[in-house]
Amino acid sequence: MSFFFLATREDTQSARLPEAPLSSNLRPCQWLVVAWGLLTTSPAFSSAVTVPDEFASIQGAIDSGADTILVRDQTYAEKPHVYRGVTLRGIGDKRPRIRGLYISNPSGWLIRPWSVRGIDFTGRVEINTGSPTQRLLTFSFTECAFDSGFQHVQSGDPYDIAVFDLAHCRLGGPSDVRAAWIILRSDTLDGGMTLDVTDTLRVQNCWFRGGPAAALKLDGDEYDGVLDNNLFEDHTIAIKATALDRIIVSSNVIRRMSVTGVELEGTYSAIIGNSISDCGIGISCGQLHVELYGNVIMRMRTTGMLFWPADRVRVERNVVGRCGGSAITVLSGGLGDLAFLENTLYGNTGSGIEFASPDARDNLVLAKGNIAFGNGGWGLRIGEPQRSVTLGCNDWFGNGFGAVDGAPSSPEDLSVDPLFCDVASEDVRLFSDSPLVGSAQCGQIGARGIGCSPPILKAFYVVSSRA
Known about the structure:
The chain is mainly beta. The chain has three helices and 43 strands.
């Protein structure tokens, strides 16, 4: 029954769907094709077999034409070749262990999804999609372990794999994949991951535990994505993305990168609420438009934030402290619109904000409500002529070379001790009696509001020493 159904479905799909790639402006139709393929996988025609009960090997069960293969808990010394859409499920108290897996293309327009759950792969897992046309295949791996990682050894049309979904898995080595949609959820990864994305990327709640290359390297052309609530440790770069269209990097913890925390190129990014510590550079952006809100960047070996070029930049309510260079460095860019608002920049070896290259000139520069405290250089250094520099309500205090170089200070600017709660412990919230609090003219100054109060004398006792 299952052999007849599979052959009939493939013939029907081949008759209905064109063999030539669809135009890129028909992406909604492509997703309808995927949905149609999922709906045509009728439970009435599905079949399930169990290994080793009905077949001695997993390969034998695959060759039987069964839709679902249940694999009992034991060690299998085989590396099955899966050449059609199939469901593999580990069953038992522990996950079965398989020596590896090789996945190749089905022929024609066989859109049946591939699904693997609850299996440990002790050897290499490979996928080969060398098709010149797009079949919009879907792959799902859940609660699996890949001791040697996952390798996409050959790729063809970028829409040959429409969706690649990896959830609650462990990857023990460097991995790579190419697909239109790529989703990583709650995975643990060693050695890094390279993703070639066509449309959309989602990476959430994952742990990148270390390796000699970038933790997450993103290739592709004009894709968008969300990288949210991940932990990156002990790589060269945490996130490296090129040619992106739009990406949101939010609420990630990034620490101990030997080169850079976040390095982005492309059109637009929003970098929000990340904690980056002990890297070479914190954030490096070469983009047309970038917005950075509420990030904490501490103890970089060089600069905290680097912009090259700087076209449209908004940097607001970030904390950058104790870096080996300047807190914020602009290396290149002209005719740009650059706004630095309510940031706290303290204890850096260089300046708070520095335009450090002859190419960084002729911009509109706005700096308001910032605290630049105890930096080795200037509070703000404008190295080259700009179209305009607008300042106001900044607190330039205790900087080694002074408040501002290359532009006139504003009469609204201050030079007072901001009274941080505990700067030694990196708590740069303000005492309630800070001179920066309560100005109706300026509003909030710095990235943090009130966080502590001065001691209050609650009682006073006088004891006489006279007999």
